[in-house]
Amino acid sequence: MPNPPAGEQLAAGGFRAGFSCFVGRPNAGKSTLANAIIGEKVAITSNRPQTTRHVVRAVMHRPGAQLILVDTPGLHRPRTLLGERLNDLVRSTWSEVDVIGLCIPADERIGPGDRFITKEISELKGTVVAVVTKADLVSRERLMEQLQAVDKLYDFADIVPVSAKTGKNVDTLVDVLSSHLPESPQLYPDDMVREDPERVMISELVREAALEGVKEELPHSIAVVIEEMEDEVSEGNERRRIYAEIYVERDSQKGIVIGKGGARLKRVGTKARKEIAALIDSRVYLDLHVRVAKDWQRDPKLLSRLGF
Ligand SMILES: Nc1nc2c(ncn2[C@@H]2O[C@H](COP(=O)(O)OP(=O)(O)OP(=O)(O)O)[C@@H](O)[C@H]2O)c(=O)[nH]1
């Protein structure tokens, strides 16, 4: 019998898809590795990490699997309330991904920073793969020693040495991460490589405005999809025309978002419009609709439509 194609070996039980991110202490080589995987530098325009749940950096298509690489701000020792909020957000993003790549540089001893992060991620549901980065900087012997030291640190699902600089093992790493994804239908269309960061941020601004003051009542039951966006000239001025849909899970939540006589939705629109205008430096026409999508959090097809 001929060997099955690589993709079928990878996902013997069926198609796999899910989210992955790289974590690790500062300077561990996370961004360089993400760039090496994506194959080109992608400027991250997000300067609002505290509001962004996760920004999709890239969708990697493999036969039998789809790996979605998301960005997360790094965990750090909080000095301010904002720092704490940021850390909470990092943890919640980490807890949403399926596979975490913990980056540990080959050329530095394992230190307290690595142990701290390992402990944090060991408490999450996601599978943890150790990535020994910057392998090109050390000898074979030193690399072997580091792999053994990493092996003692935690019961990782896999340990993969890579060099983002030479490209060595970068493809293998994507295959290894993909092999730990849950079985799932494809989450993004075939031709999708990355999400437009501006679109993601605009939807986040609408989501934030819609949640303001009602977070207790609607913690995670809300998602925003930008249906249409175009630049137009109106009365001699350029403006961006945006149609967005706010999805909630239940009729009662729809009522909360809209408010009495639509008053609250109007305020949401005004606030989001001002912030979007500031973000894109243009006048904005914003059209908001609220829809009920029952159980969207559990429906993969709907989830991907909603940009998750
Ligand atoms: N030789 C070599 N250098 C690397 C490699 N990967 C990253 N570096 C270097 O290591 C340094 C840190 O890399 P980054 O990718 O910025 O690390 P990071 O983990 O994203 O850092 P923070 O943003 O501080 O969290 C940079 O100077 C990179 O050029 C590698 O595979 N080989």
From TrEMBL:
Residues 16-183 form the Era-type G domain. Monomer. Residues 133-136 are annotated as: G4. Residues 214-294 form the KH type-2 domain. Residues 50-54 are annotated as: G2. Belongs to the TRAFAC class TrmE-Era-EngA-EngB-Septin-like GTPase superfamily. Era GTPase family. It comes from the Bacteria. CDD domains: Era (cd04163), KH-II_Era (cd22534). PROSITE patterns: G_ERA, KH_TYPE_2. It is a peripheral membrane protein. The gene is era. The lineage of its organism: Bacteria, Bacillati, Actinomycetota, Actinomycetes, Glycomycetales. InterPro entries: G_ERA_dom, GTP-bd, GTPase_Era-like, KH_dom-like_a/b, KH_dom_type_2, KH_sf_prok-type, P-loop_NTPase, Small_GTP-bd. This is GTPase Era. Residues 24-31 are annotated as: G1. Residues 162-164 are annotated as: G5. PANTHER family: GTPASE ERA, GTPASE ERA, MITOCHONDRIAL.
